[in-house]
Amino acid sequence: PADTVVDIYLPPVTYTGDLHISSRAVNLYGCCDGSGRTVIKGSLTVSTHVPDKVVLHDLDFVGNGGNGLTATASTMIENCSFTGYDIGAAVENGGMIGVESCTFRQNGIGFRYNTNSYYSFKTAFPDSVVEDNGIGVQFLNIPGNTLLDFVGTVFSNNTTDIDNPISYPIETSLATFK
Predict the structure, then answer these.
(1) 25 pLDDT more than 90
(2) For the whole model, what pTM was predicted?
(3) Which label site among 4, 91, 114, 170 has the fewest CB atoms less than 10 Å from its CB?
């Protein structure tokens, strides 16, 4: 059925090209067994809201500009890396990303929020590395005022660690800034 989540386990190879997840929730699990990592050279767009959220786990996104991930739906990214994009992960209208133990390195912007609505929300972004980006994290638009916590996240060598022109409430006391 269309409302069934599909789990796809990917071997440690490099996939080249763009992918769009739109009609059903597809969870992508990369390889992390020590034999190598699953690499995606291209971009991924997530726009499905059926049934809940998409999970991306153990994937290395490698780009040459553009967006690594564009989420207009709820997407959980765990143990993923984003390198070489204009924007590593972009949240656009209707979307939200949950970030856990991810690396954003050498992007114009590590990850950016620009949404007027969202369907689910994760308030902690723990144990990530945000380094060598122009802007580490950018908040352009998020409705509400739920406190976002960067506990255990390391910000290092970004031109700007956090760009927050909307003064969205964030907690960084347990983050590290180098």
Answers:
(1) no
(2) 0.94
(3) 4
